[in-house]
Request: fold
Amino acid sequence: MDMSVVYEQGVGQDNEDAYVVNHAMGRYAVIDGATGVEGLGGKVAADVIKNTLKEDAAPTLLDTVIKGNRGIKAATEEHFNQKLANIAKEYRTSCGMIAVEFDDSRSRMSYVHAGDCMLILQYKNSDIRVVTYDQIAKLDSTTINQFTQSIEAMTAHGEPLTDDLLKRAKQTIKPTLIQNRRQTNTSDGYGILDGTDDFINYIEYGTIPLINVQSILMLSDGLQLPTHKTAGQNSWLETGRYGLAHGLDALKDYITELENGDPFCTAYPRIKKADDKTGMLLDFNNK
Reply:
């Protein structure tokens, strides 16, 4: 099996993404930390899950993720010095992830998915299958639309596009960001690892037979191709096609080129110039 990895920090102070490579366990993962709205950093949750996946030998991959989620709870309670139930969702650290684990024969794999890290397969006949579903996209689209409208309103009054304008525009969407966080692990929101026990009801997990599977692509949302319209599942399919055809480095470089050409987030609507970018591509050349 050939493997390639991309891991690059965006514009944030910390790289809140992480990844796991454990050949002995046949376990691989891409993790995307999410900082609370003026709360605990996403790197805390991402690192807890990374370390648990790297080291824990629970009976199943899901068991390991459950153990990691308990670690997020412990880290959050230690930071705030109070029980998790008393900490508002918008202040908690959390993370999305896609993790896979092969059986001994590598004829089948387990997977666990939360948030908007994505799992994409390519078969030997070139068919591409986006396995996971991006539940966050519908909430992100509302936030991005509000952000874009705020920028347009400011520039319509003669203000030039500057970094300061973007900062003020981001302040206008803070209530929406809080509302989105309050919908984590609910039927109207999305599944995420945040230390709560009920996360298990809102994430995806299962097993997939690797019949005629040629490649496995795992991506954090920083490696989603920017679009001129609201991103969603179709955008992930196009991203998968590009990454599988050209490779992870080419995908990362192309996205970076588009981001650098649009520093004020207007051509490709988004709320930050560049997000952390993490991806893993596994190719079964001899399968």
